[in-house]
Amino acid sequence: MTSRERVLKTINHEEPDRIPIDFGACCWSIVDAPNMPEHNYLRLCKYLGIKDPEPPMRGALMSEVDNIDERVLKRFGVDCRYLMPGGHLKKVEPGIRQGDFGLRFRQLGHYGDPDKYLWRDLNTVEEIENCPLWPDPDDPVYIQSIYPEGLRERAKYLHENTDYAIGMELYFFGNLADLMTMCFGLDKWLLNMKLNPKVYYAFVNKYLNVTDKIVASILTAVGDYIDLVVIYNDFGTQMSLNMSHGDYCKFFRPYEARLVQRIKLYTKAKVIEHSCGSVWSIIKDRAEMGVDVLNPLQPLAVNMNAEYLKKNFGDIMCFHGGIDIQRLLPFGTPKEIREEVKRLIRIFGPGGEWIAAPSHNIEPETPPENIVAMFDALQEFGSYPIKDPIKL
Amino acid sequence: MKRQTARSGKNKEEEMQELEKFAKFIETGDVERVRSLTEELLAKGITPSRIVEEGVVPGMDVVGQKYESGEYFLPELFMAGEAAKVVTAIIKPYLKKEGAKALGTVVIGTVFGDVHNVGKDLVASTLEGVGFKVTNLGVNVPAETFVEAAKKENADIVAMSALITTTMLVMKDVIKALNSGGIRSKVKVMVGGAPLDEKFAKEIGADAYGKDPREAVLKARELLSK
After folding, report:
1. What is the dihedral of CA B151, B152, B154, B157, to 10 degrees?
2. Do B82 and A195 make contact, defined as CB atoms within 8 angstroms?
């Protein structure tokens, strides 16, 4: 069975030959922390005996490595590969990069952090609609800068010449919740939603209208060659959803549904939604709107552990992620990690529905032997039929 | 005499009812009603610190409880915070007019590497509202900045907030910097933030831990009465 078949079969709620594995194709990989004495990612490569890895390309926000060395991916049995779109962040001042929607990032410790919220002081419908920071979907130069020429050819090449499941993300064209957080600040967009809804609706409506065209042009180009499209909408804290379920249905769900459904107009690729936090209460909603796979399954968040998710939602949703990066991976022992992976296989594995991956970026403190223990355990114990499946 | 007592008793009861109503508006994040009622209460002679202690703090208490029980979520928390901010903005000139001596001076910030500010701002507003002089250093505050500000403001209390398990460890650096800056013995250190607890506060050598704005006020007062 090829990697692509393995991934698609599991998403189809069927058991493949073994549990598929991802690392960096969809939703995050490993934080490369340039301010640490020894780069985390390079330390991993060295540990694996890879002396000459390609210099890491770091994502602006989370400093994750976007170009994990192929030898690392093969060693770890990874079934997915990342189709990297063009960059669209430019250095505008020392230490500040700015991109679409006027998002500005500065380096804060390991991560990029919003430097200023350029939409925060816009308080009327007119100010929102006339804001000069909206991308121009009719500008071919702009479209090419974010999804450059050659992307279609690369997608085609990967599709026709490899057996991997190809994943691509839509950046802020498939991300509404986090975009609003970075444009307005989390507090401001939630306050707009409740106290100044006209402004809230003006933003979300214009966002969809502007980005409909952008998404159409990207997916028309690559849609036949990719297997997984990644969108992002972080929506939970460690304890609960960001807002009440009622508010979610009223203010956010219809727009999220459009994010998902417009992808399906242009590609048969499966939709993976990244959504940090305790988001169990909206899994059914997301299944109804067409999300195929949920990531990252932050297991220490309320009701996001394997047992709860598989038991309550396994028949309607597939899962990507789930191996804890908050405590287990950085602070556990290789033996503990191996045992936990075995346990997760017994819970998540039956019936397919799980693409195994870390539950977010692997943090810089994580020892390389722990990372290896995780991927080795997945390969060693992940074959079907699952031994001693846990009945839920 | 008796009539006066009866009238002042009725006034007191009315005041209590008004403050309870006020607390309810804080709880529901009704910014406009909070704004108009603050002005009304001040005009009736109710002191700013009473408005905060008997209006804002009880309202925020209920918000905290409802958030923990899952009835309230982030929007409700932010709305209540907005309402509390409105109160602080309105009563500030009245506090200055009163000329009351500040209960103490607090320097407060979110530690370096952390940009969470909601809880910290609520604590800052509440401390200010009850009569502390508060310098809010903002977020992502390096240890040296805490020390410089504490020296500049002649602070009684250095208050730190962190909301992530990695950044809470940075609080140790701040305490170390207060030591090497020669002012640790002159200030009390108070800490707060979701991943923290009393045990952690003790381990790092802080003087107090406050889990919400109400506790922050209680502990701040306690620390300065010792």
Report:
1. -70
2. yes
